[in-house]
Amino acid sequence: MLRFLTIILFSIVLVSTASARNKVSILENNGKLCITSNSLPDHEIGRFPNRGNPHSIKEQNIKLCVPIDPVKSDKAKYIKGTIGVAINGIQFRPNTAGSYDPSSKSGHSRTGDKRWTLDIFGAKNKLGLDVNNGHVGPNGLYHYHGIAKPLITTLNNSLIGYAGDGFEIHYLGSEVISGYKLRSGNRPSGPGGHYDGTYNEDYVYAPDQGVLDECNGGDLNGKFVYFITNFYPFVGRCLWGKISSDFGTNRH
Fold first, then answer.
1. What's this model's pTM, rounded to 2 decimal places?
2. 143 and 161 in contact (C-beta within 8 Å)?
3. Residue ranges of the domains in the chain?
């Protein structure tokens, strides 16, 4: 039996100069929570393409299912692609494809030095992110790299989405603190220079500095959840549970 949850959104969103409709449904089926979406957000977005992002947004046909009763393991798995999905059907994809590349005009490229991977919030123009920390991938997929302000007011609680292993994603602003901090000193190789947050490797996980684990996970009212934070990594880069085959370094 299918059981629709209360979250079913059909809203207007501006897409460049045209308008399109956000379509998303969330339902339970055979032990899974499935989110079906056209990947068009329920809020206004920036203009794409733009100087930092050459791609145009395109409607998608996405279905992402996660376990309703996730189980936390003792080993985290790092994810390159989609790590979660918001309640409005927009995916969280915190990593970028760029790495340090001195031969590139921008200083980074898809074929650069993988030992120094670009963090989008450290990039000079944030790769064209709009005011809701979203932008468009090469295939036209609009996705988030951080918190989108409209998600905060969508519901009367802190739930804003679900991770690829089924655990909830919440946002509590400054009430929760990331366990990461910038390294001190200078980079020993690659781009050199001072650790300034341009690259993911500029940060180090230091659990004594915050309350969240390395995947931005922690306790909320007696249950394990993930959080989006106002500081790096913003959206966590790893998951603790068994990851749905719909997620990971996926095709979306």
1. 0.90
2. no
3. 70-241
